[in-house]
Amino acid sequence: MAALRVRQVEEIAEHLLLLPALVERQEQRSPDFVRGCVAWLKALEAMLAANRLAEAGTIAAVRSGLVAAVRGAAPAGLEIQGTRTRARVAEAVASMALQRGADVATAVIAPHQARLAEADKLARQLVAVSASRGGPGVRTSDEPYEAFLQGLRRSFAAHADVAGAASLLESLVGPHDALILIDRALACVLAPA
Fold first, then answer.
1. Distance (Å, whole) CA 125 – CA 177
2. HSE-CB for 16 with a 13 A CA cutoff
3. Is 1 in a helix, a strand, or coil?
4. 25 pLDDT band (50/70/90 cuts)?
């Protein structure tokens, strides 16, 4: 399995945070609940496909089952209490599709979350050590911000006592994401109290 980058994991996690609003629609018996489920699944499928993850096919299959239910084809074994209408079948299948989609999305990002949390902690520690030594340095007004961050990252590697942590940070997330996490750590560690 390829390592997802920080932004990719965050994008999928943010998409999962849309589920409570969909469930709220279901509780309110909103007529657009099923359409919202199809849209949510379609967006998740697009995210996974853009990241070249095979799980996009699983989501496409789940979405296909939901589309079939909307068109009147109930899956085998589906039990509905009361009158079995097309709308009730579609809502039941939509609910199951959301659960399956959430399970797949969670399974995709779960292995990466511990790695990213460790990398985030390392970045904060590196910035805190730098701040305890007099700060991460001063950025000149004509220096691009990315160059400033890269210089900061190089300064971590130059100090023997934190070089191992700096190396571990890059091994966990790569140089690009290391810069992102260092930037976020700067904002957190150096923020006024």
1. 16
2. 19
3. coil
4. very high
For 2-27, letters b (16+ CB in 10 Å) and e give eebbbebbeebeebeeebeebeebbe
Two tokens, residue 127? 């910035």
Confidence check: pLDDT of 139 > 80:
no
Please report how many Cα atoms fall inside a 13 Å half-sphere around the Cα of residue 17, on the Cβ side. 6
Residue-wise pLDDT tens digits, 37-60: 999 999 999 999 999 999 999 999
Q: Which two tokens stand for residue 189?
A: 């560690």
Residues in the chain: 193
Looking up tokens 């930037």 gives 183
For residues 67 and 73, give the distance between their C-alpha atoms in angstroms, rounded to a whole number: 9
43 vs 49: CA distance, rounded Å: 10
The DSSP-derived string for 98-116 is HHHHHHHHHHHHHHHHHHH
Task: Say what the pTM is.
Answer: 0.83
